[in-house]
Amino acid sequence: MLDSVTTFVKASKLVLIVFTLAFITFLLLFIYINPGNTQPKLNEILLNPREAGWEDQYVEIYNPGDQTVYLNGWTLESAKSVLPLFGEIKPKQYSVYFGEINAFDGKITLKNNLGYTVDSFSFDPKNMGFSAGRVPDGSGQWLWTTTPTPGSSNNVSEEAGV
Fold it and tell me: What is the pTM of this model?
């Protein structure tokens, strides 16, 4: 009798472990990695600004998806700095983060609250001081411009000669 109870307890523990692993796998595959779940994108940067009137550097994030994304716990990272993010981005909207972003290594990375890289942008540090933006927003090619557009759709009226 004691052997059958011990076997039942061991089998119950095994079932619980298998169920837990299956549930975690489901969450990872269908919530965090699902290609249909559109993630926010780096959309525009202005680091070490040269133009008069642009004293603050910034990184703009665009939400191309159909759901609000909460950025608490997300980060913008470079080799030498980490800028914690906060707030939310509504669908098809922008969020601009002003601050000290030491990206002299030529790379900015957007990480989610689990520490996974969602997007990144590598660039030649000699181009710092110009604005770089994706055209069209969130999905297109990165272009360098002399026309910064923080918080709005990127408009490359004059491409920078970099």
Answer: 0.73
